[in-house]
Specification:
Strand content: 5-15%
CATH class: Mainly Alpha
Number of domains: 1
CATH architecture: Orthogonal Bundle
CATH superfamily: Winged helix-like DNA-binding domain superfamily/Winged helix DNA-binding domain
Strand order of the largest sheet: 1-5-2
Order of helices and strands: HEHHEEEEH
Largest sheet: 3 strands, antiparallel
Number of helices: 4
Number of strands: 5
Low-confidence stretches: none
Radius of gyration: 13 Å
Length: 108
């Protein structure tokens, strides 16, 4: 059961990062910060579980080349503030997401 929950969370993180990539009009608006990811997938894990699991999932995705970590501080016009620690989906992440989503799901 835990493996299924972790897989769902991993795919949900990739979905959210993919949405961010598709809607970003500027490079500094691409990607999501840890807090933004946690807010978007809050239904998958609860409370303390989320604060422990999401960083591990992101670390796994980064190590496997599906997500890049961007640590450069830039001003985001969309967020109306500076952003620093962001995670951005890679081509490998998009391919993995596509191969693991049911054909009825739509990747935006």
């Amino acid at each position: 059961m835990k493996d299924d929950q972790n897989r769902v969370a991993l795919l949900q993180v990739l979905r959210e990062l993919n949405k961010s990539a598709e809607t970003a009009t500027r490079p500094e608006d691409d990607g999501l910060e840890l807090r933004e990811i946690m807010d978007r997938i809050e239904g998958v894990f609860s409370g303390k579980q989320m604060s422990n699991k999401v960083p591990v999932i992101l670390g796994t995705l980064v190590q496997n080349g599906m997500v890049n970590y961007v640590g450069t501080k830039v001003y985001s016009w969309v967020r109306q503030r500076e952003v620093n620690h962001r995670y951005v989906i890679t081509i490998s992440g998009k391919e993995f997401l596509r191969s693991n989503v049911q054909t009825s799901d739509r990747i935006t």
